[in-house]
Every structure is written in C-alpha cells, then in structure tokens.
Write a structure and sequence with these properties.
Blueprint (H helix, E strand, L loop, with lengths): L9 E5 L3 H13 L3 E5 L2 H10 L4 E5 L7 H11 L4 E7 L3 H9 L4 E5 L3 H43 L2 E9 L4 E9 L8 H11 L2 H15 L8 E6 L23 E6 L10 H10 L3 E7 L7 H6 L3 E4 L1 H4 L6 H16 L3 E4 L5 H9 L4 E3 L13
Parallel strand pairs: 1-2, 1-3, 3-4, 4-5, 7-8, 8-9, 9-10, 10-11, 11-12, 12-13
Antiparallel strand pairs: 6-7, 6-13
Bound molecules: ligand C2E and calcium ion (2 copies).
Amino acid sequence: MPTAADEQTRVLVVDDERFIREVLADFLGMEGYLVRTAEDGAAASRELDRARYHVIITDLKMPNMGGLDLLREIKSKSPDAVTLVMTGFGTVETAIDAMKCGAFDYVLKPFKVEQVLALVRQGLQARREGARQNAERVKSDAKAELGARFERMMDTLWLAYHPIVHIGGGVYGFEALMRSEEPSFPDPSSVLSAAEELGLLHRLGRQIRARAVEGFVHAPADAILFVNLHPADLTDPELYSQSAPLAAMAERVVLEVTERASLDKMSDVRERVAKLRALGYRVAIDDLGAGYAGLASFTKLEPEIVKLDMSLVRDVHLNVTQEKIIVAMMSLARELKARVVAEGVETEEERAKLASLGCDLLQGFLFARPERIVRP
Ligand code: C2E
Ligand code: CA
Ligand code: CA
C-alpha cells in the first residue's frame, strides 16, 4: 500500500487500448493512487495542462500523438513526474529512446500489473531520493556561502567602545561591542547566530577578546574594559588560559554574562566563574530584568557588577513598576556587594530618575555612542 505520503499521488495512464487503461486504473486505484486516463498523447497533453501528475504511464504507439512526442510534452509541462513507458515486444529500441527522453523505466507488454506497481514505487522512491539529495546540496551550498561570509566578517572584525560613566561625570569603563565591515552581518546578533550555526563560537570569542585588548591600548590606565561573553565562551579553555591576550589585563576586565541565555545546561558554572576570578577577572550579569533566567544567575555568578537591562530603564520616570523593580534589584545588589550599571539611558528624564534612585553608573546614547576610538 502507498504510505501516507503517497495518498495524494496522482497517476495518469495513457493508452489507446481501453482494456489496458481500465486494468491499470482499477489496480492502481485499489492501491490507493488517484488515477486518471487518456486515450492518446494529445488527450494526455491536455490533461497535463489541467492537473499535476506525479506519475505518467504511457504507451509508445498511439494515434494522434505517440509516446515519444508525449515525453517531450511531459518534459516541459511536468518535468518532475515519474514517467514509465509500455511497449510491445520488438520495440525495445524505442523504449530505450524513451528513457533517453527522460522516462524512468519501461515495461514490456504483456505485463503483470504488479510489475507496473513495483516500477511506480521505485520511480517515486527515486524521485524522493533525488529531491532529498537536491535539498542537501542546497543546504550545503548555503552553509559554504555562510562560512565564506563569516570569514570575511572575521577578517574585518573590530570592537566599538561604549563608555560607562559616573553619575557625577567621568568615565568608569568601556564596554567592547563587536562590529564588522561585512555588510551581510549588520549587527552582533547576526554574527552570533552564524557562529552558532557554523560551530565557530569559540573562534569568534577568541577573536573578540584579542581585538578588544588591541583596541584598548590607548585607554586611560584606570579604565575598566567590559567584554561580552556568549555562554558558549564559558566552555572555551582559551578563556581560562593565563597566556591569552586578555589575561594580561584581567584585573581591569569585567566579563559580562548575559541573563538572557539560560546557564542551566552548564552544570559547573560556579567552578568556571571561580576559575575566572582566580585569574583576576570580575564578572557582571548583563541584561538583568530582561526576564529570562530570573534571579538564578545571581547565585550562580555572584557578580561584582549588575547591568540593568534597558527595558527597565526606558521611560523609567513614567512607570512606577519599572521604578520598583529597579529599587528592588539595587537593594539586592547592595546586599550582595555588587555595583549596578543602568544601560540604555537615552534621555535626561531617565538619567535624573535613575540618579534619584541612587544609580551611580550609567551607560547609554545620552552620554555617547559606541566608538572605534577609546576617548580618555
Ligand atoms: P548588550 O550587551 O546589552 O549591549 C548593549 C547594546 O545596546 C549595544 O548594541 C549598544 O550599542 C546598545 N545601546 C547602548 N546604549 C544604548 C541606548 O542608549 N539606546 C539604545 N537603543 N541602545 C543602546 P549592539 O552593539 O548592537 O549589541 C547588541 C547585543 O549583541 C549586545 O547587547 C550583546 O548581547 C551582543 N554583543 C555585542 N557585542 C558582543 C560581543 O563582543 N560578544 C558577545 N558575545 N555578544 C556581543
Ligand atoms: Ca553587554
Ligand atoms: Ca546589556
């Protein structure tokens, strides 16, 4: 029996002998195929204009339009169809011509209907296999193309630096934000998802950390460098290497771990973070309040710094709930001896409100845009 996927399989039987049309239509119909018949090539051609067929079984010798001419019509009208030709003894040569014209196979008359059914199944199977291989080829081409774009991105990767300022003025530190000259990766998230798909997150993370250090050489000696980590970076041995470029300045580095991605899958986050601290790094929870992992990340990371997500900051002067959440987070942070940075400050009203709530480290377009150069 045809499988569920075959249920709608449509078969066109073309023969000038009525008996053959009927026998095949009955038998294939009982096997679950949807069968239509045509008495010659011309009728079949009209039928192909009217409906789509998966399988076409055609006689070769017919009045009006013969099988070979019909094959040419099929090629243009229904190129994906599986075509079988039926031919009498002594015309095998023509059957071979038919296969050259794209027929899948042929049966010699007289035949057993089971033979035809077996060929129909084989033909459909081959068609599925062909489609699958085609899809795979398309997928692997796409991956190769993504890989090439990714390499161009890596070659032109640079870090923009966005200041984190004291409420009273003066710069506390700079957050490094990934940028690239490759136009097909317009923002960091597109880079990260490509790296994920290509299995290159560690390589990307290493490049970011190395370049972040290079660009920071002109920063004031007391400025702190904030570097974003993807959760996958926590499993990269290079991050824990004492000879890594970033390690040389670990005492001035805060590693930001986002609260957006769950750390649940990583069983040994505490141990990893402890290792980073032993190397001199500090740790920040990024995007707190974006509402993903909840407060679980506090106990896992025991951060020195907490960065409030900009969704909490946006219009905080107009929204009492946001204000209350910020107050609660700040009090929690105080208990845990963590400093708070409010990100995404865009307006004077937001700044003033945050100041009144006791938020003393701020980041946002109100103060500066991320820039290629670290300004003292
Ligand atoms: P994030 O770590 O929360 O970084 C802050 C994002 O907000 C940056 O966008 C920054 O340009 C933007 N921003 C800063 N101030 C304001 C503001 O006042 N208003 C508005 N509307 N936006 C502001 P960017 O650079 O596009 O980065 C987006 C996200 O991509 C980052 O969010 C971070 O999750 C990720 N990302 C960026 N660079 C890196 C990196 O080097 N490594 C990793 N793993 N992730 C990165
Ligand atoms: Ca960040
Ligand atoms: Ca953030």
